Amino acid sequence: MGSSSSSVVVPFLGALQASLSVLLTIAAGVLAAQTNLLSEKSSKEISKLCVRLFLPALLIVNVGSQLHLDTGIRYVPIILYALFYNLSSMLLGWAITRVFGMPEWVTPAVAFNNTTALPLLLVQSLDATGILASLDESGDVIERAKSYFLVNAMVGNSLTFALGPKLLNGQEEDAPDADEEKEDQTEEEADSELESQREEAEDANEDSSLLPNRAVRNGTRAEYEAYKHGRKYWAKLPKWAQTTLDFAYQFLNAPLIGAAIGALLGLVPALHTAFFNEQQEGGWANAWLTTAVKNVGNLFATLQVIVVGVKLSQAMLRMKKGEASGNVPWVPMVTVSVIRFVVWPAISIPLIYLLATKTSVLSNDPILWFCMMLMPTGPPAMKLTALADVNGASDEQKMSIAKFLTISYAMSPLICFAVVGSLKAAQAAVGG
């Protein structure tokens, strides 16, 4: 009995320590904001830098190094599973919102959990507590786990950008750039405005670029000429073609490009050897280029969680200033929390266990099983803060959402129950 109890308590305490380490990293972001080390504006710039530079670099290295021609098939179930649980969550959130009359932001809160920074930081902490080693003692276990979570995050981000730009992104710093269409302009007015923008861009680029002014000027001019001709071809397309291409373009974001580059480097044997093998084994680019990209990518997880702390600090300040209004919507908060911390683990853990033990769909990798069991679990993504602005919500509702997110992230240690359940299920699958 004592041995059985210990077998549960030890991983539970390890998972609790790991989740608390994530929470303390968030607290560091709160402290940085409270001591004016980071402002809300600078945190947005850091978040944009994380998503558009650090995360693609991390995907290039982690996906590329783990991907081979003989192992690439193991990522297909992750992509299909990510599509399944994200789309199912979106449908569930939509139904709950409509049937029970909950606020509109409940749909994205149910649909999209934090799939990037928090899982990556959790993996690092779980490795430090020895939990991952209990499943697999190989040296690349943490890199493999990160690559699985990153592929899942790539799918989640792509769905977010493509299916919910108006509901989720708004002016969010990690959303794709989008120029407003001005359909009422004549072609002459549009060309005149574009020419004015080109001249302003040339002046700005000459001041900021280290390249010779002539090269900067020619490059900017070529860019705007290509855009002008492309716009004319775009206008000639039928409406259905424009709609289809515009929808497809929403999937083209920096993390997806990084994952594609990583897949190319991993699946082409000559490139994989050059970028990821040891130098004596033909990896001529590993020590300098791959290492540089890896150093950049490793900045992502911690910095992004710090940014979450800065955002939560701003939320708490709004709570302080609006003490008489903005009540916490307890029913939506409990609903979202139960779905994310209870319902999805209750679905994903037995589902992945059955797939691992009763079918050959998943590769024989307990770390893969463990990661897939955890993928749908966790607090909502921070994009809800942008949703309130997009929907023209009142200040009272914005404060309610801010309080909701603050409480959700304070509850993040609840993930330790899902961690223990996933660990025990993965160990049982190995034994089975």
Automatic annotation (TrEMBL):
<feature type="transmembrane region" description="Helical">
    <location>
        <begin position="329"/>
        <end position="355"/>
    </location>
</feature>
<keyword id="KW-0472">Membrane</keyword>
<dbReference type="GO" id="GO:0005783">
    <property type="term" value="C:endoplasmic reticulum"/>
</dbReference>
<keyword id="KW-1133">Transmembrane helix</keyword>
<dbReference type="GO" id="GO:0055085">
    <property type="term" value="P:transmembrane transport"/>
</dbReference>
<feature type="transmembrane region" description="Helical">
    <location>
        <begin position="49"/>
        <end position="69"/>
    </location>
</feature>
<protein>
    <recommendedName>
        <fullName>Transporter</fullName>
    </recommendedName>
</protein>
<keyword id="KW-0812">Transmembrane</keyword>
<feature type="transmembrane region" description="Helical">
    <location>
        <begin position="256"/>
        <end position="276"/>
    </location>
</feature>
<dbReference type="Pfam" id="PF03547">
    <property type="entry name" value="Mem_trans"/>
</dbReference>
<feature type="region of interest" description="Disordered">
    <location>
        <begin position="170"/>
        <end position="215"/>
    </location>
</feature>
<feature type="transmembrane region" description="Helical">
    <location>
        <begin position="367"/>
        <end position="388"/>
    </location>
</feature>
<feature type="transmembrane region" description="Helical">
    <location>
        <begin position="75"/>
        <end position="96"/>
    </location>
</feature>
<feature type="transmembrane region" description="Helical">
    <location>
        <begin position="400"/>
        <end position="423"/>
    </location>
</feature>
<dbReference type="GO" id="GO:0016020">
    <property type="term" value="C:membrane"/>
</dbReference>
<dbReference type="InterPro" id="IPR004776">
    <property type="entry name" value="Mem_transp_PIN-like"/>
</dbReference>
<feature type="transmembrane region" description="Helical">
    <location>
        <begin position="12"/>
        <end position="37"/>
    </location>
</feature>
<feature type="transmembrane region" description="Helical">
    <location>
        <begin position="296"/>
        <end position="317"/>
    </location>
</feature>
<feature type="compositionally biased region" description="Acidic residues">
    <location>
        <begin position="171"/>
        <end position="206"/>
    </location>
</feature>
